[in-house]
């Protein structure tokens, strides 16, 4: 429950008439037992970090039980597309589909998605795809202006899911949650993510890294600057 994606996992399932399967911690530590549980419970959507998928690839390739999975959602850390090569060498591209999703906690979890294909494995950077329909995404320069196609800029996220701000941190809230000048709504805001991206010719976004010292370990944010001040 301490991970932001749990909001999407729990309410995404229950609100849409699905069944939520809570996996015991000890099972998550064994790829074979995890796969067995997915099959027994007829799980159709699995959410995991890219690093957690790696030990599962060979097990899925030898899918003798015909697991019911339709989608494997990859999120929580940057995806290196080349790590998916073993998956596509062993699996059909039709089922289950791999979906790389991106989104900061501050915009109510997910903002963009990309259904991965074998062709994506040739990319050196993480393809995070296109915006979800009820989300607005902007790639802006240091002056808050849109940049040309292919140029590197900072990703801003707008829409109804943008949070009100950080609890008891007014200065950081003012720095990160800004008025959205690209829509007519007077109170519309956008979130300054700190993530560097660029557009491909097909309209998909490529994630290039951070403009600060933030890193992620198993999906959890680590602010190196805060550690250095201790």
TrEMBL record:
Domain (AMP-dependent synthetase/ligase) ranges: 1-167
Signal peptide: none
Native source species: Mortierella alpina
Keywords, in A-Z order: Phosphopantetheine, Phosphoprotein
Record GO terms (molecular function): phosphopantetheine binding
Full protein name: AMP-dependent synthetase/ligase domain-containing protein
The organism's place on the tree of life at top rank: Eukaryota
One GO BP annotation of this record: secondary metabolite biosynthetic process
This protein's GO CC annotations: cytosol
Alphabetized InterPro entries for the sequence: AMP-bd_C_sf, AMP-dep_synth/lig_dom
């Amino acid at each position: 429950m301490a991970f932001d994606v749990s909001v999407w996992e729990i309410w995404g399932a229950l609100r849409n008439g699905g069944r939520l399967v809570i996996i015991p911690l000890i099972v998550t530590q064994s790829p074979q037992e995890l796969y067995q549980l997915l099959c027994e419970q007829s799980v159709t959507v699995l959410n995991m970090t890219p690093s957690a998928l790696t030990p599962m690839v060979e097990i899925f390739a030898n899918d003798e039980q015909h697991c019911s999975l339709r989608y494997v959602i990859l999120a929580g850390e940057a995806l290196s597309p080349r790590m998916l090569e073993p998956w596509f060498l062993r699996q059909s591209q039709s089922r289950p589909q791999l979906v790389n999703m991106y989104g900061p906690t501050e915009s109510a979890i997910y903002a963009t998605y990309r259904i991965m294909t074998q062709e994506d494995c040739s990319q050196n950077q993480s393809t995070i795809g296109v915006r979800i329909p009820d989300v607005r995404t902007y790639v802006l320069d240091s002056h808050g202006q849109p940049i040309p196609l292919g140029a590197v800029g900072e990703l801003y996220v707008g829409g109804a899911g943008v949070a009100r701000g950080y609890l008891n941190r007014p200065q950081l809230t003012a720095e990160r949650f800004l008025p959205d000048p690209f829509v007519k709504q007077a109170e519309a805001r956008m979130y300054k993510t700190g993530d560097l991206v660029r557009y491909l010719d097909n309209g998909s976004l490529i994630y290039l890294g951070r403009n600060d010292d933030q890193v992620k370990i198993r999906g959890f944010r680590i602010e190196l600057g805060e550690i250095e001040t201790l």
